[in-house]
Amino acid sequence: DVDYDATDLETEIGMAYNLGFVKGSNTAGTLFSPKATLTRQEAAVMLGRVFTKLGGTIPAVSSTAFADDGNVAGWAKSEVAFMSGKDIVKGVGDNRFAPTKTLSIQEAVIMANRMLETLR
User: Fold this and answer.
1) Which of 11, 14, 43, 79 is deepest in the core (most CB within 10 A)?
2) How many CB atoms lie within 10 A of CB 99?
């Protein structure tokens, strides 16, 4: 579903997919959904995939320390817990993570910068 004529990012999307940083947005893994928004938990998972690709290890957990842990998808809990434990991702106030909230560009830049600074 990536329109190669309408985007200049097909190479980057392909590289991110081939490196395992992004996966399909459907269960078959065949859609990318380039116009979809990214959630905070999806961003944490993507950062986690980069970290593990670089040789890091993220321990498996069944819960996070956030008050809204019940809203964090099971597939994202380990990365959310790890990245928040390293202060790479932070809550939105009242000890809530807001996992399904749309990630803003500013949050994405801050998270990426924190990861570069923290996990060198």
Assistant:
1) 79
2) 24
